[in-house]
Design brief:
CATH superfamily of the largest domain: NadA-like
Number of helices: 15
Radius of gyration: 20 Å
Strand order of the largest sheet: 2-1-3-4
Largest sheet: 4 strands, parallel
CATH class of the largest domain: Alpha Beta
CATH architecture of the largest domain: 3-Layer(aba) Sandwich
Bound molecules: iron/sulfur cluster
Length: 357
């Protein structure tokens, strides 16, 4: 029997993670920018699509201007269905790229191109491609949180809500999996599906900071509370979950659960939509700042926070920060995405959140 492979650690070092800086504007300046952005969206025939983790100001503006708030794949799908010629994506770069891959004929703008993702950064395409080439016997399954170039090397792309079902399907066909980039999500899928999986060793800097010991203490203080956890979190946190779900799944579960108090382990940007969904429930953030904390983000993604009203207005005024993806990459990256979309259609699976957002 061959020795187990030890893969390099692709998590970012703390010095590679920016501080989370949230824009705080005087109300008059905020209102001026909101009005300016609304006018620019109308005059340019553009639509604003925002991720659940962005600043509530942006989520509110997307809703009020006829745009949309959801998870990454649903944002791209919404853009596809929209008649708008310009999509303005508030989120991180891979979301802009996915929107472009699914809508190559549209102009895709973002408030900043510096909004990255630790999972994407921790999975550089050349290194990942070489790794895949070393394992030609494995089906390459990647998470949505990857660059267009990494998706172009994959057989399947999955979301957190579809990953277990897709991998179980592949397992039933006798396929072995090469998974990237989130090791915690990979461990969760492996445990749920029993598939043979080789796991890339990346992590989300936000979800990795949720702490099992401190969560146990918090649960003891709120014995009636239910715990909702995103599967990018470490196993010690997932183990204590009443529900493990994607962002859209967490919002749906919050509605459906009969508990009055919910402890939520995901980026705290989601509280804007959670409060809309369950205004009468008490929502508590799962603890990050534990005894072993190295937290720089403290439950809010530093790159998501780079999406600000000021930058959004600048982008619309100047046309800066357009997403371009090489046509060859678009052609190859669209295949694993379409495979997922077809799989979901055939199984009538909810992989994105249109009906929930
Ligand atoms: S919250 Fe984590 S997974 Fe999401 S964009 Fe930020 S670093 Fe990436």
């Amino acid at each position: 029997m061959s020795a187990p492979l030890t893969l390099p650690d692709y998590r970012l070092r703390p010095d590679q993670v920016p501080e989370t800086v949230v824009e705080r504007l005087p109300p008059a300046e905020r209102d001026r920018l909101r009005a300016r952005i609304t006018n620019l969206l109308i005059s340019q025939g553009a639509v604003l699509v925002a991720h659940y983790y962005t600043d509530p100001e942006l989520q509110r503006l997307a809703e009020e201007t006829g745009g949309y708030v959801s998870d990454s794949l649903d944002m791209a799908r919404y853009g596809h269905d929209s008649k708008a010629a310009t999509l303005v994506v508030c989120g991180v770069r891979f979301m802009g790229e996915t929107a472009k891959i699914l809508n190559p004929e549209k102009r895709v703008l973002m408030p900043t191109l510096a909004a990255e993702c630790s999972l994407d950064l921790g999975c550089p395409a050349p290194v990942f491609t070489a790794f895949c080439d070393q394992h030609p016997d494995r089906t390459v399954v990647v998470y949505a949180n990857t660059s267009a170039a990494v998706k172009a090397r994959a057989d399947w792309m999955v979301t957190s809500s579809s990953a277990v079902e897709v991998v179980s399907f592949l397992r039933d066909r006798g396929e072995k999996i090469l998974w990237a980039p989130d090791k915690y999500l990979g461990e969760y899928i492996q445990q749920q599906s029993g598939a043979d999986m080789l796991l890339w060793q990346g992590a989300c800097v936000v979800h990795e900071e949720f702490k099992g010991l401190e969560l146990a203490e918090l649960r003891a203080q709120h014995p009636g509370a239910k715990v909702l956890v995103h599967p990018e979190s470490p196993a010690a946190v997932i183990k204590q979950a009443d529900v493990v779900a994607s962002t859209t799944g967490i919002i749906r579960a919050a509605r459906e659960m009969d508990a009055d108090t919910l402890i939520v382990a995901t980026d705290n940007g989601i509280f804007y939509k959670l409060q809309q969904a369950v205004p009468d429930k008490t929502l508590i953030e799962a603890p990050t700042a534990g005894k072993s904390a190295t937290c720089k983000s403290c439950a809010h993604c530093p790159w998501m926070a780079m999406n600000t009203l000021t930058r959004l207005a600048h982008t619309l005024e100047t046309g800066a920060n357009e997403i371009h993806v090489d046509p060859d990459i678009i052609e190859r990256a669209s295949k694993p995405i379409e495979r997922l979309l077809n799989f979901a259609t055939e199984r009538k699976q909810q992989i994105y959140g249109r009906s929930d957002a």
